[in-house]
Amino acid sequence: MRLIAGLGNPGREYKNTPHNAGFEVVDQLAHQLDLPSPQSRFQGLMQRGSAGPEPFLLLKPQTYMNRSGFSVAECLRFFKIAPEDLVVVSDDLDLPPGRVRLRTSGSHGGHNGLRSLIEQLGTEQFRRVRVGIGRPQGERSVTGYVLGRWKPGDESATQAVMPALLEALTCFLRSGAWRDTTLAAPQPVVAETATG
Question: What is the fold of 2-184?
Fold first, then answer.
Protein backbone atom coordinates (compact mmCIF):
# COMPACT_ATOMS: atom_id res chain seq x y z
CA MET A 1 0.00 0.00 0.00
CA ARG A 2 1.19 3.52 -0.80
CA LEU A 3 0.29 6.84 0.81
CA ILE A 4 0.38 10.36 -0.59
CA ALA A 5 -0.06 13.01 2.11
CA GLY A 6 -0.62 16.64 1.17
CA LEU A 7 0.24 19.22 3.82
CA GLY A 8 -1.79 22.32 4.58
CA ASN A 9 -4.05 23.97 7.13
CA PRO A 10 -7.73 23.11 7.59
CA GLY A 11 -10.45 25.74 7.31
CA ARG A 12 -11.92 28.00 4.66
CA GLU A 13 -9.62 30.88 5.54
CA TYR A 14 -6.60 28.86 4.33
CA LYS A 15 -8.13 27.56 1.10
CA ASN A 16 -6.34 28.80 -2.03
CA THR A 17 -3.28 29.99 -0.10
CA PRO A 18 0.30 29.11 -1.09
CA HIS A 19 0.84 27.19 2.17
CA ASN A 20 -1.99 24.80 1.19
CA ALA A 21 -0.33 23.72 -2.06
CA GLY A 22 -0.11 20.15 -0.69
CA PHE A 23 -3.87 20.01 -0.12
CA GLU A 24 -4.47 21.35 -3.64
CA VAL A 25 -2.33 18.62 -5.22
CA VAL A 26 -4.14 15.87 -3.27
CA ASP A 27 -7.54 17.35 -4.19
CA GLN A 28 -6.66 17.45 -7.89
CA LEU A 29 -5.23 13.92 -7.79
CA ALA A 30 -8.37 12.60 -6.07
CA HIS A 31 -10.54 14.32 -8.71
CA GLN A 32 -8.46 12.95 -11.58
CA LEU A 33 -8.63 9.41 -10.14
CA ASP A 34 -12.39 9.80 -9.47
CA LEU A 35 -12.08 8.82 -5.80
CA PRO A 36 -15.02 8.80 -3.38
CA SER A 37 -15.46 11.59 -0.84
CA PRO A 38 -12.91 11.60 1.98
CA GLN A 39 -13.51 10.03 5.39
CA SER A 40 -12.39 11.54 8.69
CA ARG A 41 -9.59 9.23 9.85
CA PHE A 42 -6.21 9.60 11.54
CA GLN A 43 -6.77 13.27 12.42
CA GLY A 44 -7.18 13.94 8.73
CA LEU A 45 -9.28 13.48 5.62
CA MET A 46 -8.46 10.17 3.93
CA GLN A 47 -9.43 8.69 0.57
CA ARG A 48 -8.84 5.13 -0.62
CA GLY A 49 -8.27 3.93 -4.14
CA SER A 50 -6.41 1.39 -6.20
CA ALA A 51 -4.13 1.81 -9.18
CA GLY A 52 -3.82 -1.54 -10.86
CA PRO A 53 -3.26 -4.21 -8.22
CA GLU A 54 -1.87 -1.77 -5.66
CA PRO A 55 -4.19 -0.08 -3.12
CA PHE A 56 -3.32 3.45 -2.06
CA LEU A 57 -4.41 6.21 0.30
CA LEU A 58 -4.54 9.98 0.00
CA LEU A 59 -4.41 11.95 3.25
CA LYS A 60 -4.82 15.61 4.18
CA PRO A 61 -3.91 16.06 7.88
CA GLN A 62 -6.36 18.34 9.70
CA THR A 63 -3.95 19.00 12.58
CA TYR A 64 -2.58 22.27 11.16
CA MET A 65 0.73 22.34 9.37
CA ASN A 66 3.06 22.26 12.38
CA ARG A 67 1.54 18.99 13.68
CA SER A 68 1.10 17.18 10.36
CA GLY A 69 3.46 14.41 11.42
CA PHE A 70 1.01 13.11 14.04
CA SER A 71 -1.68 12.40 11.44
CA VAL A 72 0.66 10.86 8.86
CA ALA A 73 2.50 8.69 11.42
CA GLU A 74 -0.80 7.39 12.81
CA CYS A 75 -1.96 6.39 9.32
CA LEU A 76 1.37 4.72 8.47
CA ARG A 77 1.34 2.70 11.69
CA PHE A 78 -2.27 1.57 11.28
CA PHE A 79 -1.79 0.31 7.72
CA LYS A 80 1.82 -0.81 8.30
CA ILE A 81 3.06 1.36 5.44
CA ALA A 82 6.84 1.75 5.23
CA PRO A 83 8.24 5.31 4.98
CA GLU A 84 9.62 4.50 1.51
CA ASP A 85 6.00 4.02 0.33
CA LEU A 86 5.08 7.53 1.51
CA VAL A 87 5.09 10.72 -0.58
CA VAL A 88 4.60 14.04 1.21
CA VAL A 89 3.52 17.09 -0.81
CA SER A 90 4.30 20.54 0.61
CA ASP A 91 4.94 24.12 -0.45
CA ASP A 92 8.48 25.46 -0.93
CA LEU A 93 9.52 29.11 -0.62
CA ASP A 94 12.85 28.46 -2.37
CA LEU A 95 11.29 27.34 -5.64
CA PRO A 96 9.47 29.80 -7.89
CA PRO A 97 5.81 29.23 -8.76
CA GLY A 98 5.57 26.85 -11.71
CA ARG A 99 8.41 24.61 -10.45
CA VAL A 100 8.03 21.37 -8.54
CA ARG A 101 10.85 19.25 -7.13
CA LEU A 102 10.52 15.49 -6.53
CA ARG A 103 13.08 13.98 -4.12
CA THR A 104 13.60 10.58 -2.52
CA SER A 105 14.65 12.04 0.83
CA GLY A 106 16.12 15.15 2.42
CA SER A 107 15.93 17.53 5.35
CA HIS A 108 12.95 19.63 6.38
CA GLY A 109 14.56 22.73 4.85
CA GLY A 110 12.93 24.94 7.49
CA HIS A 111 9.41 23.72 6.64
CA ASN A 112 7.54 23.08 9.90
CA GLY A 113 5.21 20.47 8.41
CA LEU A 114 8.17 18.42 7.17
CA ARG A 115 9.94 18.97 10.50
CA SER A 116 6.90 17.49 12.30
CA LEU A 117 6.91 14.48 9.95
CA ILE A 118 10.61 13.80 10.46
CA GLU A 119 10.18 14.05 14.25
CA GLN A 120 7.17 11.69 14.31
CA LEU A 121 8.55 9.17 11.81
CA GLY A 122 12.09 9.25 13.17
CA THR A 123 13.53 9.36 9.64
CA GLU A 124 14.11 11.66 6.68
CA GLN A 125 13.86 8.66 4.33
CA PHE A 126 10.53 9.36 2.67
CA ARG A 127 9.72 10.80 -0.73
CA ARG A 128 8.65 14.38 -1.00
CA VAL A 129 7.21 16.75 -3.57
CA ARG A 130 7.98 20.42 -3.07
CA VAL A 131 5.64 22.79 -4.88
CA GLY A 132 7.26 26.15 -5.60
CA ILE A 133 5.49 29.19 -4.18
CA GLY A 134 8.36 31.71 -4.28
CA ARG A 135 9.22 34.27 -1.62
CA PRO A 136 7.35 37.42 -0.59
CA GLN A 137 8.37 40.68 -2.21
CA GLY A 138 9.15 43.88 -0.35
CA GLU A 139 8.15 44.26 3.29
CA ARG A 140 5.62 41.43 3.41
CA SER A 141 6.31 38.81 6.10
CA VAL A 142 6.76 35.16 5.18
CA THR A 143 3.78 34.23 7.39
CA GLY A 144 1.54 36.83 5.76
CA TYR A 145 2.66 35.65 2.33
CA VAL A 146 2.15 31.88 2.76
CA LEU A 147 -1.20 32.34 4.52
CA GLY A 148 -2.43 35.06 2.15
CA ARG A 149 -4.07 34.63 -1.25
CA TRP A 150 -2.07 33.55 -4.30
CA LYS A 151 -1.03 36.28 -6.68
CA PRO A 152 -2.91 35.55 -9.96
CA GLY A 153 0.22 34.91 -12.05
CA ASP A 154 1.73 32.65 -9.38
CA GLU A 155 -1.39 30.52 -9.06
CA SER A 156 -1.66 30.07 -12.84
CA ALA A 157 2.04 29.08 -13.06
CA THR A 158 1.43 26.45 -10.37
CA GLN A 159 -1.64 25.14 -12.19
CA ALA A 160 0.37 24.91 -15.43
CA VAL A 161 2.83 22.40 -13.92
CA MET A 162 0.04 20.34 -12.31
CA PRO A 163 -0.59 17.91 -15.24
CA ALA A 164 3.05 16.75 -15.22
CA LEU A 165 3.01 16.40 -11.42
CA LEU A 166 -0.26 14.45 -11.38
CA GLU A 167 1.13 12.12 -14.05
CA ALA A 168 4.27 11.47 -11.94
CA LEU A 169 2.18 10.79 -8.81
CA THR A 170 -0.22 8.48 -10.68
CA CYS A 171 2.77 6.54 -12.04
CA PHE A 172 4.10 6.17 -8.47
CA LEU A 173 0.72 4.90 -7.25
CA ARG A 174 0.47 2.37 -10.09
CA SER A 175 3.99 0.97 -10.10
CA GLY A 176 6.08 2.56 -7.36
CA ALA A 177 8.21 4.21 -10.08
CA TRP A 178 9.95 7.36 -8.88
CA ARG A 179 12.58 9.65 -10.32
CA ASP A 180 14.17 12.59 -8.54
CA THR A 181 13.56 15.51 -10.87
CA THR A 182 12.40 19.09 -11.19
CA LEU A 183 9.24 19.75 -13.18
CA ALA A 184 8.56 23.14 -14.74
CA ALA A 185 5.47 24.74 -16.20
CA PRO A 186 5.62 24.88 -19.99
CA GLN A 187 6.78 28.21 -21.32
CA PRO A 188 4.22 30.11 -23.38
CA VAL A 189 4.87 30.01 -27.11
CA VAL A 190 5.52 33.44 -28.55
CA ALA A 191 4.69 33.71 -32.22
CA GLU A 192 7.30 35.40 -34.36
CA THR A 193 6.05 38.11 -36.65
CA ALA A 194 7.50 38.49 -40.10
CA THR A 195 8.81 41.91 -40.94
CA GLY A 196 9.14 42.91 -44.47
Answer: Rossmann fold (3.40.50)
